[in-house]
Amino acid sequence: MIFAQSENILAQPPSRGGQDDDVPSWLAGLQNESAPEKDELMDWARDVSEPQQPLKEEPPVFTPSQEDTPDWLKQMSAEAESKSQQVSSQPASDSQFDADTPDWLKQMSANAEPVEAKTPQDAPELNIDTPDWLSTLGGADDNTSSVEPAVFTESNVPEREAESLPPMDMPDWLKSSSEVEEEKPSQDTTTPLWLKPQVQSQEPELPAWLSSAEETVYPDQTKEEPAAQDDLLGDVPDWLKAAAPEKTIFDSQDELKSEVDASGGTDWFSAIQPSGETEVESNIEPEKVDPFASMPAFTPESQTDESLEGLFTEMPDWLSSASEQPSTSTPTPITNEDVLPSSNLPSWVEAMRPSDSGFSQLTSSASDQTLESRGALAGLHGVLPAVPGFTPTSKPKAYSLKLNASAEQLRHAGILEDILSAETSPVPIESFSTLLSSRALRWTLSFLMLAVVFSTVFLRTQIFSMPIGRPSEVSSVIQIAQSIPENAQLLVAFDYEPARAGEMEAAATPLFDNLLLLKHPRLTFISTNETGSVLAERFISGPLAVHNYQSGVTYSNLGYLPGGQLAIRAFAQNPSVISPFDILGQAAWTSPTLQGVTSLNQFTAMILITDNADAARVWVEQTQGLRGDIPFIVISSAQAAPMIQPYYDSGQVTGIVPGLYGGAIFEQHNAGRPGTARNYWDAYSIGMLIAMALLLSGGLWNLILGLREKREEK
Amino acid sequence: MQISLDLITGVLSFLFTLLILSYLIGDNPLFRIAIYLFVGITAGYVASVIWWQVLTPRLFSPTIPALFAGSMIERVIIIVPWLGAVFILMKISPRLSKIASITMAFLVGAGAAVIIAGALIGTIIPQVSATINFFDLNVAIARNINVAEVIGNGTIVLVGVVTTLSYFHFGARPQANGNPRRFVLIELFAFIGKIFIGITLGVIFAGVYAAALTAFIERISSLINFFGNF
Lengths: 714, 230
Prior knowledge:
The complex is a heterodimer. Chain A is mostly helical. Chain A has helices at about 1-10, 25-30, 40-50, 55, 70-80, 105-110, 115-120, 130-145, 160-165, 170-185, 195-200, 210, 220-225, 225-235, 240-245, 255-260, 265-270, 280-285, 305-315, 315-330, 345-350, 360, 405-425, 440-460, 470-485, 500-520, 530-540, 565-575, 575-580, 615-620, 640-650, 660-670, 675-714, and strands at about 490-495, 520-525, 555-560, 605-610, 630-635, 655-660. In chain A, strands 3-2-1-4-5-6 form a six-stranded parallel beta sheet, with helices on both faces. Chain A is elongated. The radius of gyration of chain B is 28 Å and the shape is extended. Classes of the chains: A mainly alpha, B mainly alpha.
């Protein structure tokens, strides 16, 4: 909303009312800007008014003390006393504040009399916080309110809030401006509403507040009372301070004075010092109470895209004149004194500074007139002037990149290059085709094996004779079986997988059948495999079911022995502690099966049934030295027998029954009982023959193919 | 009609045997069904075994009697497994998982000690002694082995062990052309050792084939027996 006002400022015609020639449009805009910003002015107005609240409560006895009065008012008060006699038409209500009011404020307050007539009775009490020239503006608004209605409406400023505020908290000029806006609609759409009343109410040549200030003597004040001028400047907002000397950037001090004299400069205008004094002013500023300090020129809510566009496309008169002035006149030497410090410029003024008008003129004295076309300095001339004489006078010398290498060096380089290329070049990996069995071959072999095995087992053929010879390891087992006393206590370890049950039972059944039939041993089963206990039960209730062994009476199943090698070692050391119960939860070592047995060497013999060479090795290793002289028989699978054979050769294992072959041998010793090996033997023999034939034929076939390929290659 | 348990187990055995044998024609859903069922049944069975044969009789049941009526040694013996179990359970929490390293350190340390000692005492020293004593006639006579067999077996075993160990001797010296080459005698022994290794692998393969063939025969025989009983 406020930004829209500034847009109107920029869009304002330069010759409106004939007063724009005398008063800069930006100044007029600045003066009138206070009217629509009453919501923001309320902040500082509250700040200023709050400490003076007692004054409002007792207006008749109000006497401004030195402590309550701001510095700028104090300094102005001295001047005001000296000139109080010159003001003859001062209202009675303001007489008590004359001492605190500067002349120019008093003079402006004369124009504010009509406003006082309309404002409430307590309104003059706020004049102590409000400069008279501002009050004058309010009066001017009042005078012109009937002429031009206000078109512009404050969208974001809550008028109702402003109206709801007590009149004593609101300055006169704010009240008057608000009343004007309420009462009079604006007919002129090009002029901002807040500007119209002032423009039309002022004199044709000068605004009222400026004309009333003609009585002030600018030269005297500048010479005699510089401190007062500083104070006066302190009343000027920062952005106004920064903006005001803009006029004098390209003008001398004399031109400034003449212009001020011609236009009837006011006190505040005379307070504009040369740029060299701006630093002093900036140091003094924070100590002063500036009612405009809290009044921003723009508010974020008003910064719309349209207003921003208008802001940069339509420049105010003073800016356009400032940009045109140096083009016609000789540019003055740029010094640090002439350039306004950026800290004194409000952001919106800095944003408005054209990149190709102001600074280009400031830097016109530079010899390099190159226009920056891109980057942050786009549009500026000579901002990066080249140092004279820096430009190269001749082209740089071209150096040849060709190496002066001898033939020997080139040869060495070639060798190195070959080595590197050989390292980086991919080497094909020698691969040979994997011999994959075709589906037809697989089906053929499967059918062949299935047919042979099924037919031989189903027909119970006895084509092939049982093995005749007795290997020493099997003979040892036979001798042990014969030497075992009747009703002996045997420890049997079941350590094989269920998948190997067929082979292991075929290998172990003849031995156990012989033992159970002849010796009636008491069996104790244990397993380091989770399924071992079940396999033991299956074994005793399956192939050996005819012997009718009872759990807890003739055999005990100690179950699963967890812990691997550690458990085997512990069991070998103290079996009754490690496995105190059988799988039924009964105390195993007090049963008839294990009566009198407290250690491993008290068993008559130890039999291991396993399909794994590692399991056999573990049992051999961990029971070494603890089992004493008791026989240790291993009934192994055919795949594990070759690995266990060394332990037999070393004497660590007393005997081995290797797979179906060992079972078949022992079965012959057992008078053909139970006959399982015999039933399997033909199929086993045919299967082995088929395997041998296939392997041999396959090998020969590959040999023939290889020879043929070699012959073809030759 | 009363269905016997043997009939049910026989039918199931027959069915799953067919499913497994279907792998002869290649991987197929029937084979996978049988495998998945086997894995699941095995897992459930192992869990029940551990509960009924390990945890209950070895940990839970003895705890209260040992703590309230046992001696100090029994209390310590029963507390130590509990601590080890609790420490292992700390692996559930990432923050407290380091506590499990105490139990794991004990298991690793004790296991390594048992394995090394067992291998040294139960395998290395006895096997070296057996290889050396292969020509000991007294030992052979004690085991009812005739002299010719002792000499023949001893010679083969000695040559096989020496040449096989030579094969695994990889020390070599660089020659003039830069290629490393082992000593000539070692090279000869290594060549012979390679033959023994090949024979050993062939024996193992034959054993594996024989074991598999026996299992296959047993399955076919069980199927025939199942149908033969009806």
